[in-house]
Specification:
Blueprint: H1 9-31, H2 37-52, H3 65-79, H4 85-116, H5 118-121, H6 125-152, E1 158-165, E2 168-176, E3 191-195, H7 196-199, H8 205-214, H9 220-224, E4 235-242, E5 245-253, E6 257-261, E7 265-268, E8 272-276, E9 288-290, H10 294-297
Parallel strand pairs: 2-9, 3-8
Antiparallel strand pairs: 1-2, 1-6, 3-9, 4-5, 5-8, 6-7
Helix pairs in contact: 1-2, 1-4, 1-6, 2-3, 3-4, 4-6
Active site: 177
Organism: Formimonas warabiya
Subcellular location: Cell membrane
Length: 299
């Protein structure tokens, strides 16, 4: 006699919803993809509705591999709208990788603890599955994939930068620093810290005059003496904290273009160049420090 299985559609729906939400949330964290809780909710809702259709025999055709792929693309599109084609494909890849990782955690963890823990023996597979899915989502979103991504995106820690300002450009060597998380507080654009002397020759003459006078003392005075010059629209004040220096301010400058020569050549305008009045390297091996998220801006 064949065993009878009872599937509760409401339980299946809720289980799929929470797991899908966790996958989408971790995808957003891993890929630094702008979205909202409403978008994640709608994506998870779509995934849960698709998952619950399996209880109806007449919808079996929806579970062909090609249809599953189409639904996953639709879920990503709903959760992360207005992406470029490249960013959409990246988000889809993150979505699949995280899905597989969470599925392995759910199945493996549930099976192990259900047989080896008195507490988990009292919970059904759906409850333990949710627990392990949530734990894996938190791990991937906050630490695991963030750590892997920093090493996966770069096989070296030095790159060459071509910085263009006022239609003039120059090359500098940059250190990729995972500890540099500086962003412009207004635009949230990532920051590249560059020695002032390295950029001096391509900066406006009157800007140089006031920076050399006040840059090491009080960068706010540079703006006070600007006299409404055209370049003031490109200047930013970027606060920072460091060892022995709290509530400091770096003077930022919006470049025309930055080209990164790493594993591949990429260009971006979505960065801020922050000037530093001292050498960044005692050996002179590099003259700029790169926020790793610049790679995202250049993607």
């Amino acid at each position: 006699m064949q065993p009878t299985y009872i599937v509760y559609a409401d339980v299946l729906f809720l289980t799929n919803f929470f797991l899908d939400y966790g996958i989408l949330w971790a995808t957003a964290k891993f890929g630094h993809i702008a979205t909202s809780h409403l978008r994640l909710f709608l994506g998870a809702l779509l995934g849960a509705l698709y998952g619950v259709l399996m209880v109806y025999p007449q919808t079996i055709f929806l579970y062909a591999v090609s249809v599953k792929i189409l639904f996953s693309l639709l879920i990503v599109a709903v959760s992360f709208p207005r992406l470029t084609v490249r960013k959409f494909l990246q988000a889809t890849a993150y979505f699949y990788v995280i899905s597989f990782a969470m599925a392995g955690a759910v199945l493996g963890g549930s099976s192990f603890l259900a047989h080896n823990s008195f507490f988990f023996q009292r919970l059904d597979i759906k409850t333990t599955g949710l627990l392990f899915g949530a734990a894996m989502a938190l791990f991937l979103g906050y630490w695991g994939f963030g750590h892997l991504k920093r090493h996966w995106q770069r096989t070296q820690f030095r790159v060459s930068l071509e910085i263009m300002i006022e239609k003039k450009s120059l090359m500098v060597e940059a250190l990729i620093d995972t500890g540099n998380e500086l962003r412009d507080p207004l635009s949230q654009k990532p920051v590249i810290i560059v020695e002032y002397q390295a950029l001096r020759n391509i900066l406006p003459a009157d800007f140089r005059q006031w920076y050399e006078k006040y840059g090491a003392e009080d960068v706010t005075k540079v703006m006070e003496h600007s006299g409404g010059a055209v370049w003031t629209t490109k200047v930013r004040m970027v606060p920072f904290n460091s060892i022995g220096k709290h509530h400091g301010i770096l003077l930022g400058y919006k470049p025309d273009l930055v080209t990164i020569f790493g594993q591949q050549k990429t260009c971006t305008k979505d960065v801020i160049i922050c000037l530093y009045h001292k050498p960044l390297s005692t050996s002179g091996g590099y003259r700029a420090v790169l926020n790793p998220e610049v790679f995202e801006a250049a993607a």
